[in-house]
Every structure is written in C-alpha cells, then in structure tokens.
Amino acid sequence: MAVRVHLSSNLRGPTGGLAEVEAEGATVGALIDDLDRRYPGLGDALRAGVSVVIDGLLIAHPEYEPLADGAQVYFVPQTAGGLG
C-alpha cells in the first residue's frame, strides 16, 4: 500500500529535510520499517516519542494499525500536559 507520510520538522534529518515522502506498508509498523530502509535512522526516531495521526485520527497504539492505500500518515511530536 502506498501512503503519503508527513514528518514534523524534528524528524526530517534522515530524509534530507523532506517534509513529505511516499512509502509502503500494510500497517504502521510495516510503514516504519519501509521508511527506515529508505531513510536509515528514521525508524528509530519514529518509534521514540512520536504521535501518529492517520487520515485525521490520532491513533493511541499505532504499531499494528492497518493502513489503506493512499492514506495520509502524520508523525508529530508527542505532547503532554494537563492540569496539575
């Protein structure tokens, strides 16, 4: 499945600064593996402290989340907060 991947600025180093790339994967985990093959080092960055948004929906546990052909996948920094 070909999907469009959008990377936040802190994740663009391995892509040479590209904000958007195309990659393949039937699940988010497979997508990350493909991205790491294409852009060595990106996989580790994507598995450490990022949130995954697929077609506008924030996914809590994305590793095995299925992806549709043409999906838009955003990797963004995790945010924390709340009243405290």
Distance from first to last alpha carbon:
43 Å
Q: Which secondary-structure class do the elements indicate? A: alpha+beta
Q: Which stretches are poorly predicted, pLDDT < 50 over at least 5 residues?
A: none
CATH architecture: Roll
Biggest sheet, strands in spatial order? 2-1-5-3-4
Q: What would you say this structure looks like, in words?
A:
By secondary structure, the protein is of the alpha+beta class. The protein has a single domain, classed as Ubiquitin-like (UB roll) (Roll). Helices cover 20% and strands 30% of the residues. It has helices at 28-38, 42-47; strands at 2-7, 20-24, 50-54, 57-59, 72-77. It has a five-stranded mixed beta sheet. A hairpin with a 2-residue loop joins strand 3 (50-54) and strand 4. The termini are far apart.
Question: Outline of this structure?
Answer:
The protein is of the alpha+beta class and 84 residues long. It has helices at 28-38, 42-47, and strands at 2-7, 20-24, 50-54, 57-59, 72-77.
List keywords for this structure.
84 residues; single chain; Ubiquitin-like (UB roll); five-stranded mixed beta sheet; alpha+beta; 20% helix; globular
Write the layout of secondary structure elements.
Elements: E1 2-7, E2 20-24, H1 28-38, H2 42-47, E3 50-54, E4 57-59, E5 72-77
